[in-house]
Amino acid sequence: GVKISDLPSALTAIDNLHERGVQCVVITSMHLEGSDSIFLLASLSSSSQPPQRLKITIPKLEATFTGTGDMLAALILSWFQLTDDLKTVIENATATLQAVLAN
To answer: In which family does this protein belong, per the annotation (predicted)?
Structure first.
């Protein structure tokens, strides 16, 4: 296993999963030292192209939530039924989750 402590180690972990055949990897709620935000990393691999990669900065909300990871996973899966564009999928899924949490 790879201990994820920064962006390079997260990318190494993602690459390791891709090498094992996992096509889509999403790391949610990654905290980077010195930042007040959380980050989402996503990577989608295919045999014919380099992986699509995306890093999204998400403002940290001062609240406690339960089930957000499950909801985000369901939203990502739902959006992948409509498009295989990683950027569209992740942006729409995180925007929906943020809207729910804001209300």
So the answer is: Belongs to the pyridoxine kinase family.
- Interatomic CA distance for residues 59 and 45, integer angstroms: 27
What count of other Cβ atoms lies within 10 Å of the Cβ of residue 93? 24
Distance CA 67, CA 45 (A): 27
Residue ranges of E strands in the chain: 24-31, 37-46, 49-59
Specify whether 70 is catalytic.
yes
Of 36, 70, 84, 85, the catalytic one is 70
**Residue where the block lists tokens 């180690």:** 9
Cβ-proximal residues to 82 (8 Å cutoff; 6+ apart), any chain:
none
How large is the angle between the packed helices 86-102 and 68-80, nearest 10 degrees? 140
pTM of the model: 0.87
